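Lab meeting minutes (informal)
Scribe: AK
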Amino acid sequence: MPALADQADPPLADSYHALLRAGNGIAPAPATESLAVLEQDLPMIDLSRLSSGDAKEREACADAMARAASEWGFFQVTGHGVGRALLEEMRREQARLFRLPFDAKAKAGLLNGSYRWGNPTATSLRQLSWSEAFHVPLASISGEDCDYGKLCSLRGVMQEVANAMSRVADTVAATLAESLGHRPGGPTAFPAGCDGTTCFLRLNRYPACPFAPETYGLVPHTDSDFLTILCQDHVGGLQLMKDSRWVAVKPRADALIVNIGDLFQAWSNNRYKSVEHKVVANSKAERFSVAYFLCPSNDSPVGTCGEPSPYNPFTFGEYRRKVQDDVKRTGKKIGLPNFLKLSTVDGQK
């Protein structure tokens, strides 16, 4: 058996067995909850309609987007301008990156030390994510001190993908904000504090899991940003909560997935929904995805589209710190309920 340093996969099985022993050898209920899972297409939005010369066509597209953000919190977009050839090149670069020995990924400071795997704070199997990722701040992608090792072409591809997804995120965010009465070019920009240095690009890999379907690829969560733009491969595994049931998202080769984050739900006074979602592990095939997170600077106030807001004022930095504290203290994210004016979290009134 090769040494761990020569293996590409992180020691996820070791984590699984350690958590299994800690739980007295009792495996969790299946992550798929197959009897309750529906497979559906998300609402589909053609972004090219926003450039139509017909005002009614543009309005219909914006209305469909706002409705999907309110009813689903997720939707798919076509006509987004991100070329398939570029996304396929990104997939090839991802595969090369994740094929590196685990030791090189975890300890060599690759991509500014942005590598992560599993869940170091997990105390049970229900908190273990069978995945690995590079969660890279956009500010560091083009930085001279960002180490790409021998993957010379990775930097350029990542930068191009980040730029393309940034344009999609800006278009979607501006359209959704305008649907709530925010006017572009007004006294305050939206989203406040977001630029090319504050957002993130995350490269994900979900190795085939011999313990599926008992294991999550990514544990249930909501995103702590304004918007997420996701490109997933053909394998599938993404599920979201809709009407108290899990819905499996059918992969579409020509579509990107957009989901509302916690900050947008707060800014919209709960008009748009940041919904719980997860990735289910696959026993036979590995899965790749790339996600762009539209985030502000840590000192940026999240604000509101109009008063009264159900939330107390908070900055992105305050929100992130509270999420981290909750995970350390309880093992899970609490998120927006912490900031409700009438919050009952931890007995607060």
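Next up, CB showed the second protein from the same session:
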Amino acid sequence: MKETVLGIQVNTENYDELIPKVFERIETKQKSLIVAINPEKIIKAKEDPALKALLNNAEFQIPDGIGVILASKIQKGQITSRVTGVDMMLRLCEEAAKRQKPIFLYGGKPGIADKAAEKLQELYPGIQIAGTQDGYEQDNQKVIDKINTAKPDLLFVAMGSPKQENWINANRGQLHPTIYQGVGGSFDVLAGNVKRAPEAFQKVGMEWFYRLIKEPHRIKRQIKLPLFLLEVAKNKSSK
């Protein structure tokens, strides 16, 4: 099920509903891209037709951001819980370990993907990590060949959005994996280089507030949230 928020499609399911759907696609060999949707991306997509097409053409659009949940409430929609990019990746890795589906980590500074892989092995014993590759390799064909030789079912790409999704879309036709997710700074979180907000903030969808306290310069980005919700309300009342 999907719901439209200011012209962008968003999945309404939670983790437990999404995970089986993702792995079903591995079994049926249906290549699929998972993108994280937040208010910032939705606002940018209004001015950027290429970004709008990228987001809407993805097979899964997860509601990553409390603003998307609030927007759904305003328009009396069905999205009730956040599905964050990093937690989606972790849930996929947990399930991949159970089902013995190999994964590959691509992106980040040299050594970061390796550290992230070590952490995943610690979290999910038995997980099959087919390989890693940092994001500094200039020869794209070399990267493609390395991934294809490893034959993973899931590929996580950490380059920042929308660069990572654009790379996936440009190359997935010649890549072996079935499931693709752009994961931004998730490798840095797993490697211990970046700390997530405490769990109490995560549970109530206030990670953005924690980051704002830590990095006050983010206020310019966060101020867009009330404007986004106002636009959602206007859009609803005009229908």
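CB comment: The two ends are 21 Å apart (CA to CA).
No objections, moving on.
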